């Protein structure tokens, strides 16, 4: 078992670090013309660049990242497309421009998600001496970026305050991807409790959502945390007797599950505060767990082993020889793997999760009802 201090250092480092449609009508009659996305590396489509991002991110700009679909690295933490990419395809929109690559014109939206982001403000981790100064971004940073973007469009108020604001938000879907995993990673081996992180993280994201809703947005999608105990990183570093019915790390999965229970309660409260808005919660934990219970049903032969990494079975993951480094190599059939690099998922898994969110039963309310609501506004 790796010492807690080593685990802490690496987790902070690493975490920071075919088209489909659920029905053809959505493709041709989508009421959403733009998306504004937020989150961390599970949603980041290029804000983490080796040249301008925090130190330690160079590996995502290296082969074989991006090899399956784009055929070159795009600073996405996968071999290809992410959930947000499949969402844009489903809505017949172009892939979202990362905020750091935005040049002033964004008719189809902008992606503000950046790898390494925390839900809690970075200052908290600095104050508690829990930072390696590699990932200063948080969900608050993304709100600052979003406000700067709004100002660049002439919007300095709410949807009802000016035609410029109405133009920005009109026909827009707000997508708040998974955020919070990094907060727990920072505190591994520290005296800060998981309960403290859970309370602060959910409170922070709730405040973020309230700020968006007060601007007048009406259609919001939020993702819960995945079962982090099923990631090869967690499997390698945890004790072998810390396992659940999925074969994953029990303590980590319990932590992310409990976080989601609290998060869903805050979403329910927000629905009451903003009855004119539709807030859809995507159950990342149970969607992922459903695949883990019967991976072959979904075409996966390797539920635990990383496609890209080093060390071979059972996890193909070594802490200091991760995907993108010279010591690592990638499998020839990533579509048969759930996990890409030890922490992030393959395009095949993201595609399956997208289908489960958009046309399955893991969106509450169903994504289709959010679409219908928008069409009839």
From TrEMBL:
It comes from the Eukaryota. Keywords: Glycoprotein, Hydrolase, Membrane, Signal, Transmembrane, Transmembrane helix. SUPFAM superfamilies: SGNH hydrolase. GO terms for molecular function: hydrolase activity, acting on ester bonds. The chain crosses the membrane at residues 6-26. Gene3D superfamilies: SGNH hydrolase. The keyword Transmembrane helix applies. PANTHER family: LIPASE_HYDROLASE FAMILY PROTEIN, PUTATIVE, EXPRESSED-RELATED, ZINC FINGER FYVE DOMAIN CONTAINING PROTEIN. Belongs to the 'GDSL' lipolytic enzyme family. This is GDSL esterase/lipase. It comes from Populus alba x Populus x berolinensis.
């Amino acid at each position: 078992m790796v010492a807690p201090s080593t685990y802490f250092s690496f987790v902070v480092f690493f975490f920071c670090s075919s088209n489909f449609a659920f029905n053809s009508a959505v493709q041709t009659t989508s009421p959403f013309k733009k998306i504004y996305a937020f989150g961390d590396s599970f949603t980041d489509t290029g804000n983490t660049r080796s040249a301008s991002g925090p130190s330690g991110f160079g590996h995502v700009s290296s082969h074989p990242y991006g090899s399956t679909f784009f055929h070159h690295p795009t600073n996405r933490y996968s071999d290809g497309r992410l959930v947000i990419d499949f969402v844009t395809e489903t809505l017949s929109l172009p892939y979202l421009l990362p905020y750091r690559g935005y040049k002033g014109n964004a008719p189809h939206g902008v992606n503000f998600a950046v790898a390494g982001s925390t839900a809690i403000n970075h200052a908290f981790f600095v104050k508690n001496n829990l930072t390696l100064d590699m990932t200063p971004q948080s969900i608050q940073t993304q709100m600052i970026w979003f406000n700067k973007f709004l100002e660049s469009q002439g919007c300095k108020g709410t949807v009802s305050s000016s035609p410029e604001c109405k133009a920005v938000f009109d026909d827009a879907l707000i997508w708040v991807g998974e955020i919070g995993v990094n907060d727990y990673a920072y505190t591994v081996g520290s005296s800060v409790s998981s309960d403290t992180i859970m309370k602060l993280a959910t409170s922070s994201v709730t405040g973020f959502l309230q700020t968006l809703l007060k601007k007048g947005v009406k259609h919001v999608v939020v993702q819960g945390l995945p079962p982090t105990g099923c990631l090869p990183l967690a499997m390698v570093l945890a004790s072998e007797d810390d396992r659940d019915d999925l074969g994953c790390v029990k303590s980590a999965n319990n932590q992310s599950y409990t976080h989601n229970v609290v998060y869903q309660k805050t979403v329910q409260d927000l629905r009451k505060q903003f009855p004119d808005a539709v807030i859809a919660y995507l159950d990342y934990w149970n969607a992922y767990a459903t695949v883990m219970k019967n991976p072959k049903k979904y075409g996966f032969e390797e539920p635990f082993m990383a496609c890209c990494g080093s060390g071979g079975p059972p996890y193909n993951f070594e802490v200091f020889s991760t995907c993108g480094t010279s010591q690592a190599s990638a499998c020839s059939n990533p579509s048969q793997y759930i996990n890409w690099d030890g922490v992030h998922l393959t395009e095949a898994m993201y595609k399956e999760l997208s289908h489960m969110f958009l046309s399955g039963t893991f969106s509450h309310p169903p994504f289709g009802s959010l679409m219908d609501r928008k069409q009839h506004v």
